[in-house]
Design brief:
Layout lengths: L1 H14 L3 H10 L2 H5 L1 H6 L1 E3 L5 E3 H46 L3 H16 L3 E7 L12 E3 L4 H5 L1 H6 L3 E4 L2 H7 L9 E7 L6 E7 L12 H18 L1
Parallel strand pairs: 3-4
Antiparallel strand pairs: 1-2, 3-7, 5-6, 6-7
């Protein structure tokens, strides 16, 4: 008789569902644990510290962790939104300053001031195509004539007219920002009027990580469009 009982017991064990089947069943019948309150309260889970906790306590712990992660993500989204709002306000301020600038010299001053004060840019470069700009006496604006050092250094950029962002070597830093007291470690070089090639601007930073090749370009394009419109209006 004992042998028969043992064989029946083994058969019952073999017929028990596997973990996957239990998981599927509970997902399809979540009301089971609600209906079986005694079972829910009696379940215990091993804690990382070695002590046991009830299933309800474990669920509360998981919900708290999920809530903390959601709050962290929300805070990051809010911070990003606030940063974008500040940047939009600064772009609007730059647009007003450039529109009100009465001359090319005033444009150069207003642009450099706005970049330093509102965008934490250490220095700027403004270069205008020599075919459109014949003067050489306005501080802060460089004529881009054929075979000049800047044109030779950026011949590929001038040909492709694609925004370049990233680290800046010492030679190019001296070409673009010769009077800057800080050591420029990274820069963004942006074309003015990409199709017509009015010229180029460059934003320099002492921070090596400030400008990266894969960063977003929308802000840089907006700034270049504003500068190009202001310069074109004063050249007319």
């Amino acid at each position: 008789m004992a042998e028969v009982s043992e064989s029946k017991s083994d058969a019952v064990v073999e017929e028990l569902p596997d973990k996957a089947a239990v998981i599927v069943y509970l997902k399809k019948h979540p009301e089971l644990l609600v209906e079986q309150a005694d079972l829910l309260e009696s379940l215990e889970l091993a804690h990382a510290s070695g002590s046991a906790v009830s299933l309800i306590e474990r669920q509360v712990e998981l919900l708290r962790g999920r809530n903390a992660r959601l709050e962290s993500r929300l805070e990051k989204l809010i911070d990003t939104a606030r940063a974008n709002e500040r940047r939009a306000d600064h772009v609007l301020k730059l647009a007003r300053a450039l529109i009100r600038a009465p001359s090319l010299a005033a444009i150069a001053i207003a642009f450099k001031s706005a970049m330093r004060e509102d965008f934490d840019i250490d220095d700027v470069f403004i270069g205008i195509n020599g075919s459109s700009y014949k003067r050489h006496d306005i501080e802060g604006i460089t004529p881009l004539e054929p075979n000049t050092p800047v044109v030779r250094a950026y011949d590929n950029f001038i040909r492709t007219r694609l925004i370049e962002c990233g680290p800046l070597d010492e030679a190019r830093a001296k070409l673009l920002f010769p009077k800057c007291e800080a050591t420029i470690a990274s820069a963004a070089v942006i074309p003015l009027e990409k199709e017509k090639y009015l010229g180029m601007i460059a934003l320099g930073s002492r921070e090596a990580e400030r400008f990266q090749p894969r960063q977003g370009k929308l802000f840089l394009e907006m700034v270049a469009e504003l500068v190009a419109a202001a310069v074109r209006a004063r050249l007319a």
